[in-house]
Amino acid sequence: MKTTIDKVHEHVGEEVTLGGWLANKRSSGKIAFLQLRDGTGFIQGVVVKAEVNEETFELAKRITQESSLYVTGTIVKDERSPLGYEMHVKKLELIHEAVDYPITPKNHGTEFLMDHRHLWLRSRKQHALMKIRNEVIRATYEFFNEQGFIKVDPPILTGASAEGTTELFHTKYFDEDAYLSQSGQLYMEAAAMAFGKVFSFGPTFRAEKSKTRRHLIEFWMIEPEMAFMDHEDSLELQEQYVSYIVQSVLKNCQIELKTLDRDTSKLENVQAPFPRITYDDAIKLLHEKGFDDIEWGEDFGAPHETAIAESFDKPVFITHYPAKIKAFYMKPDPDRPEVVLCADLIAPEGYGEIIGGSQRIDDLELMEKRYEEHHLHGPAYEWYLELRKYGSVPHSGFGLGLERTVAWIAGIEHVREAIPFPRLLNRLYP
């Protein structure tokens, strides 16, 4: 009977066949221990010389790392194993022998590993990271489907900037100028006017020449947009969503979190509601912590966000930023127009902003004024203005950066390991 490693718990005491690869091995005279992987997980196969024929044992001793094979044996419980099970091997069938596999069990430099990213993904820690990423994605769909959202896919090629910035990748769209999307938000607002509650999940691109551990050139975003929801409603949805995905990873990725040596006690505390602090109070807090150089009206950098987060044991919302440092579409606070109804959600442990969101301007006259202030002219922006002409309603939305969120949940140092094939300032290969 063929099965997979993630299903071996269903076959205790039974003889089964796995198709997989040899991740590592060790042997001691009359016994060989094969570390096997098949894409669904890792399991140890034990080959005892006295229990197999001579050909099988010789193959077990000489088989090379990352060779592919079929392995037949009996599944038994083993509490010492991270999986809880191992296989007592009866038969080995070599499919393909790998020769001189470049990523050996010794330590390798980051650039070497990134050059071999297509192979590095096979390792235990990288495998664990991709499983956690997949769980965040699965839980995202589950959460928004349960909340009555519809998934809408915005275009990747656009005729204008979503946020009025110049950090765009330019291309030619036949006879027109076009750009790789830096956000699907504007299109999601149009979708929200049609369907009420929508979300998108797709790649976004920022031509930002940054080399920090928090930045990628190409990354994936989850962008919900909600009609008839104000700023406060949006904050409540955000904290429910983040709590949901964290708890889903804790529930379904225990083996992967252990593989990464993640301190899960810090994740167990991630339950709504989250603390909130205004931009004004954040400035005061930073001054108390010795950041005397930051002044009101300036945006926060990574050290500032980390210092603020250290004062809380959960993700923290920073709300009501100055209008002049935020996007043109954010709704001003009616009681204080120099700040906007927005929030950034800052993750604990130095991972920085994982969500940016706001209530959107729904007033046509004010949006026209913003167009003038930001020099947003031409047909590329006309359709967005029309959303305020035909049945405008209060609405809000936010965007969560998948890779930063995965990096935080997994407890890794750099976002480059939170995506299968990272695109960085100095890397377009493989």
Automatic annotation (TrEMBL):
Catalytic activity, EC: 6.1.1.22
Main location: cytoplasm
Keyword Plastid applies: no
CDD domains: AsnRS_cyto_like_N, AsxRS_core
Annotated ranges, domain Aminoacyl-transfer RNA synthetases class-II family profile: 130-430
Catalytic activity: tRNA(Asn) + L-asparagine + ATP = L-asparaginyl-tRNA(Asn) + AMP + diphosphate + H(+)
First-tier enzyme category under EC: ligase
UniProt GO cellular component terms: cytoplasm
GO molecular function, one term: nucleic acid binding
Domain of life according to the entry: Bacteria
Annotated keywords: Aminoacyl-tRNA synthetase, ATP-binding, Cytoplasm, Ligase, Nucleotide-binding, Protein biosynthesis
GO BP: asparaginyl-tRNA aminoacylation
Subcellular location: Cytoplasm
HAMAP family in alphabetical order: Asn_tRNA_synth
PANTHER family registered for this protein in UniProt: ASPARAGINE--TRNA LIGASE, MITOCHONDRIAL-RELATED (PTHR22594:SF34), ASPARTYL/LYSYL-TRNA SYNTHETASE (PTHR22594)
Description of how the protein assembles with itself and partners: Homodimer.
Protein family membership: Belongs to the class-II aminoacyl-tRNA synthetase family.
Matching NCBIfam families: asnS, PRK03932.1, PRK05159.1
Record's protein name: Asparagine--tRNA ligase
